[in-house]
Amino acid sequence: MPLPVAGLVAMLYAVRPVVVPRGMSLALAQRSYQQLWEPRAYRRPTTFAMGRDGTVAAALAGGGSANAEGRILLARPTGRTRVLPPLPDALIAHHTRAYAPSADGRHRYIGGYIQNVCVTDGGAPVVTFAFPFGGAYAGFSEASFIWTGTVWADAVPAGIPAGRQNVWVAAASRSSIAFVADVLDESPNELSSADETSNDAHDQVIVLSMGSASVVGNGIATDIVGDRVAGYDDGFEVSAQGVRHAGSVTAVMWSSGRARRLGGGIAWALGRDDFAVGDDRHDVSVVGHPVCWRDGRAVLLSGHSGSAFATGDRDMVVGRIETGAFVATCGAPPRSFSMLDPLIDDHRWHIEGAYRISSGGAILALAVRRAEKTMKLVVLVPLRRGVAGRSR
Q: Cα angle vertex 188, ends 182, 193, to 5°?
């Protein structure tokens, strides 16, 4: 049964659109870069993120502008914004081989784009660049980079575990970063060199902590807090002979090198202790319902299709269902659930989806001003406490 909604104690929020330089736009439309494992609907967007300190990083869309292509907009909670330099061709070339410069020499990797964006607790963006390739086989060459404050650098040290070539960033915290070794986009030659061709390979979760990288298990990572990682096992296995779907999708928490399977679904974010949020879909090709897991037990947040994407202090949970963004609590009863729209001080806004929460309670969301119909990346800033609740 859905959670009760009476007497939800929540913040009232102001909408603060992320300011984009004139002539540029954000890459808000999600590309479908991995047809097999990626969730079809109610997935957290990969081209923007917010760190726990409130820093927002977002990929800029090219839009025909050489100044925007492959660049990151960085917005600090102080209101200061900056467009970071593009990823250097020479740095990308460390990972993506045998691609000649374009005729004009301006950009070596035309067609490539920033596929994943994460932000560490300290506000440093970590991104993955994806470059499509074709020929005897097709896929994406992926590599991850971190902004040091002055330059872009390799995010993963040389000699990553398992000899994988494709590594994309999935989550970041204060001292750790979670990556995924993407076997579904590796070439048969790379798979053959990394594994016995008679054995099946899986996407692997790699944690980089204190300069050392280690594989913590098979699956897709979505969040990391300290040494705890959330995510899911997509059920796909790969070898040089092809791809096999070995089962339904399962939510997973990894801690101290051990995997804890929570049940069917995707765990999108971690809270305190053994608390996680996500959805209960049984396959990546279908939708589920928003849930939280506490002490290994799933609690349904809403009977509507959707997912919970982030959790903050006092077990506050945000996410998206069919009608828009929601906020809920999943601590000790009584638990509550409300749409976010009634909690916005300017009712001209509709909050489409809520995806991240900072340690200060700010929410990163997609929203539209009803009269304009243009989706914007916004930060919902808490103003004061109020009482609201709406049955869903």
A: 85
- Angstrom distance (rounded) from CA 56 to CA 62: 19
126 closest CA partner among 186, 68, 179: 179
Reported as a single tens digit per residue, the pLDDT across 121-164 is 999 999 998 887 766 666 778 889 999 999 999 998 776 655 55
Residue 94 CA to its chain's centroid (Å): 25
Residue pair 141/130 in contact by the 8 Å Cβ criterion = yes
DSSP symbols for 83-137? EPPPPPHHHHTTTS-S-PPPTTSS-TTTT-EEEEEEE-TTS-EEEEEEEEE-SSS
Q: Give residue 78's Cα distance to chain centre.
A: 23
pLDDT, position 40: 66
Lowest mean per-residue pLDDT among 47-56, 323-332, 370-379: 323-332
35: Cβ contacts below 8 Å, ≥ 6 apart: none
**DSSP summary character for residue 30:** P
C-alpha closest to that of 42 among 222, 254, 197, 227: 222
Look up residue 44 and give its two tokens: 């957290």
State the Rg of the chain over Cα: 20
d(CA 268, CA 331): 17
Query: In whole angstroms, what separates CA 312 from the centre of its chain?
Result: 16
Written as one letter, the residue type at 232 is Y
CA atoms within 13 A on the CB side of 103: 0
The residue type at 268: W
Q: Give percent of the chain above pLDDT 90.
A: 44
CA-CA distance, 236 to 252, in Å (whole number)?
A: 15
Report whether pLDDT(351) > 60.
yes
User: Can you tell me the distance from the alpha carbon of 219 to that of 201, in angstroms, rounded to the nearest whole number?
Assistant: 11
Alpha-helical regions (H) of the chain: 89-92, 188-194
C-alpha distances out from residue 31 to 37, 46, 84, Å: 13, 9, 22
